Amino acid sequence: MNTAMIGPINPPPRLLMGPGPINADPRVLRAMSAQLVGQYDPWMTATMNETMALYRDVFRTANEQTFLVDGTSRAGIEAALVSLLEPGDRVLVPVFGRFGHLLTEIAQRCRAEVHTIEVPWGEVFDAEQVEDAVRRVQPKVLAIVQGDTSTTMCQPLADLGEICRRHDVLLYCDATASLGGNEFEADAWGMDVVTAGLQKCLGGPSGSAPITISDRAAAVIDGRKHVEAGIRSDDDVDHGARIASNYLDLAQVMDYWGLRRLNHHTEATTMLYGARECARLLVEEGLDAAVARHALHGRAMLEGVRGLGLAVFGDVEHKMHNVVAVEIPDGVDGDRARAALLDDFGIEIGTSFGPLHGKVWRIGTMGYNARKDAVLVTLAALEQVLRTTGGVGAAQEVYST
Ligand SMILES: Cc1ncc(COP(=O)(O)O)c(C=O)c1O
C-alpha cells in the first residue's frame, strides 16, 4: 500500500438506524473538537465536576461517586465487576440475552463464583423469579442488564433494589442500551452501581462509560484500595484484596475524580467533552421529555414495520422504546436486504446474535436519530427494498435468466 496516497478521513453519509452506534448529535461532535486543556487546570477540574453533576441528573441519583470510566461501555461493566467482586465471591446474573452472557463472562474473569438464571430470548424476568434465585444463591452482587440490545427487551427493575436490600445484596445494572430513552431511577430503584455508554440514547460516540456508585458500594470498593507505587503517600494504607485491574480500579479512579485528584491516568479529554455534552443536552431537553421522545418514535417505527406486514419479535409489552426486532420474512435474504439499504439508501440497520442471528433485523430509533424524518425515511427505504428483494425481486430474477 502506498501510504502517501492515503487521504484524510471522509466517511460516507450514513443514517445509522441499527441498535447503536447511531449518528452522534452534531453538538456533541462540535464539543469534541474543542482544544485540550491540562488535566489539573482549574477549568478542567471544574468541567469534570460539572460532568459529575450532569450525570447525577441523568442517572437520577444523589451519589457523590458519579463520573466517567474511560473506554467503551464494557470498560464500565468491567470496572464495576472487577472492583466489587473478589475471587470466590458469589454473583447472580439473570440472563435474557447476549449482554447477560457478557456480564457472566466478565464476572467469571474476576474469578467470582457465577450463578445464572435464564429465560428464553424475547422474554424478561418477574421479580419473584429473581428473588427466589437470590434466596437460593445468596450472592454478594446481583448483576443485571436493563435493556438487552440483542433481544430488545427491557427488564423491569423497580422491585429489585428492595429485594437486594432485604437479602443484603449489592445491585449492579448495565443500562448502556436503555439510559436516556427509557425510564431509569438509580436512587428510587435502589441501585448500587450503574454503568452506561454514549452511543445509544445519549447521542454520542462510544468510548466513555458513565458510572454511578452508591455510598455503600463505594465503601466496599474503597475497602480494597491499594494506591499504586509512585503516587502513594505515607497516609496510604493497603486494604482488603487488591482489585485485579489497575486501569479499571474504581478505588483509585474515585480518588482521581474526587478532591484528592490522584494522578491515576491521563484524562481522555476529548471523550470527556463529548460525554459532558451528551448529558447536558439530555438535561436541557429534560429526562422525561427525552424518554417520551424515544417512546413516540419507537412506537411509530413499531407500527410502521407492522404496516409493512412484518412481524415483531419478542414480548412487545417489555420492549425498549429505542429498538425493535423485526422478523425477517420467509423468502427474503436478510443480509441482502440490509446491504441494499446501505448501498442504495445509505441506511444501516442491524442483524442480531446467537439464536436470533439471521432471523431478525434490529432497527433503532435512539438519541439524535429518534426523529420523525429518520423514522419515515427508514420505513420508506425498507418498503422499497422489500419490494425489490421479496416477491417482485424473485419474479424479476426469473425474467432476467
Ligand atoms: C446492553 C449493552 N451492554 C454492553 C454493551 C457493550 O458496549 P461496548 O461495545 O460499548 O463496549 C452493549 C453494546 O451494544 C450493550 O448494548
Structure description:
The protein has helices at residues 26-31, 42-59, 73-84, 98-109, 127-137, 160-166, 215-222, 250-257, 269-285, 287-307, 334-345, 372-389, 391-400, and strands at residues 15-16, 65-70, 90-95, 113-118, 141-145, 147-148, 153-154, 170-174, 193-195, 208-213, 323-327, 347-348, 360-364. It is an alpha/beta fold. α11 (334-345) packs across α12. The relative contact order is 0.16. It is built from 13 helices and 13 strands. It binds pyridoxal-5'-phosphate. Pyridoxal-5'-phosphate (PLP) binds next to α3. Residues 20, 72-74, 99, 145, 148-149, 174, 176-177, 197, 206 line the site of pyridoxal-5'-phosphate.
Write the layout of secondary structure elements.
Layout: E1 15-16, H1 26-31, H2 42-59, E2 65-70, H3 73-84, E3 90-95, H4 98-109, E4 113-118, H5 127-137, E5 141-145, E6 147-148, E7 153-154, H6 160-166, E8 170-174, E9 193-195, E10 208-213, H7 215-222, H8 250-257, H9 269-285, H10 287-307, E11 323-327, H11 334-345, E12 347-348, E13 360-364, H12 372-389, H13 391-400
Parallel strand pairs: 1-12, 3-4, 3-5, 5-8, 8-9
Antiparallel strand pairs: 2-10, 6-7, 9-10, 11-13
Mean pLDDT: 96
Q: Whole-number radius of gyration?
A: 22 Å
For the terminal residues, how far apart are their CA atoms?
40 Å
Task: Tally the beta strands.
Answer: 13
Q: What percent strand? A: 5-15%
List keywords for this structure.
401 residues, alpha/beta, 7-stranded mixed β-sheet, two-stranded parallel ribbon, binds pyridoxal-5'-phosphate
